[in-house]
Amino acid sequence: MEVLRINGVEKHFPADQFPSTLAELVEYLGFSAATVVAEINGKIVKSEHFGQTSLSAGQSIELLRFVGGG
Amino acid sequence: MEDRLVIAGREFGSRLFVGTGKFASCGVMAEALEKSGAEIVTVALRRVDIANENDDMLRVIDRDKYLLLVNTSGARDAAEAVRLARLSRAATGIEWIKLEVTPDAYYLLPDPVETLKAAEILVTEGFVVLPYINADPVLSKKLEDVGAATVMPLGSPIGSNQGLKTRAALEIIIAQANVPVVVDAGLGLPSHAAEAMEIGADAVLVNTAIATAAAPVEMAAAFRLAVEGGRMARLSGPGAVRTEASASSPLTGFLRND
Predict the structure, then answer these.
(1) What is the 3 state secondary structure string of B138-178?
(2) CA–CA separation, B205 vs B95, rounded Å?
(3) Which of B35, B65, B98, B141 does the annotation list as catalytic?
(4) Which residues of B fall within a CB distance of 8 Å from A66?
(5) What ipTM score was computed for the predicted complex, to two decimals?
(6) Smallest CA–CA separation between B109 and chain A, in Å?
């Protein structure tokens, strides 16, 4: 099992299901890359680079999106 | 000559900024924004909800029509605010940021020290910084000095609808400011917004009073009228306030026998 920390919560993937890119992870979670803002280990990743950004076990990923606010 | 609001070299016709929180639906929000005449609209940045499907509220905000002003709400200190600002700019390409550092969730008052610290960093990184602050005239000047594009002093706590509890301090800020002053937070009625404009604010920001009204779209229209009316009044040079009366009708020619 390989682990990713996503939005502060650990998620375990069987090795053969581990998302190889950020784009794959976002799709797996049911979101659209166009609406998601991402950070990997504290470093911002722009959405146009999701497909070329590979993931490794143990990384800490933050996925955000815009919501209503004042 | 048109009376335009100018912030960081960009001109606007509307002096009403509207927030997008607390609306019952995206549809109501979009209609209310339309009726408000706003050109600047605020949003927040939050973690996606892994358990729930993504609803993209940005879909209904036309970015050719509205300047998206992302806030750093949720930030408890300068570091968190700077992090959110950088994420915002990376995602939208927009350099404007509403700097909001509110560590205490009960009153949601902005931390002046962390706000000033974050403002200085963000200005250096090329952001157009619109800082949310308490109505502190000294802090306002310090923020101007570090290059903030506006100051955004509160009228009363966020969402409280109390109106301009900070009126006296706002008047000082307005008298001394060399950047636009946007009164933000606590405006509960159009009359509060009109009052802010009458005392010389350059703009106001309203969210709760519109979003939680029984009829948000109509309330948005009401706020639009109030901001326009208040601004017209300010530009029309209101008369002096006195303790004694000053007769409106002549004090001579009375029909009486003395």
Answers:
(1) HHHHHHHHCCCCCEEECCCCCCCCCCCCCHHHHHHHHHHCC
(2) 19
(3) B98
(4) 43-45, 56-58, 70, 91
(5) 0.95
(6) 14
Residue B117 catalytic? no
pLDDT digits (tens, 9 = 90+) for B49-77: 887 766 688 889 999 999 999 999 999 99
Fill in the DSSP letter of residue A54. B
Inside any domain, residue A19? yes
Domain CATH for A15:
3.10.20.30
Instruction: With 0.90 as the threshold, say if the pTM is over it.
Output: yes
Residue B54, domain member (yes or no): yes
B102 in contact with A, Cβ within 8 Å:
no
Cβ distance of A30 and B73 shorter than 8 Å: no
Q: Which chain B positions have a beta carbon within 8 Å of A32's beta carbon?
A: 54, 56
Which H or E run includes B196?
helix B190-198
Q: Please, what's the largest Cα pairwise distance for chain A?
A: 43
Domain with B193, as residue range(s), is: 5-235
Q: How many domains does chain A have?
A: 1
B21 lies within 8 A of chain A by CB = yes
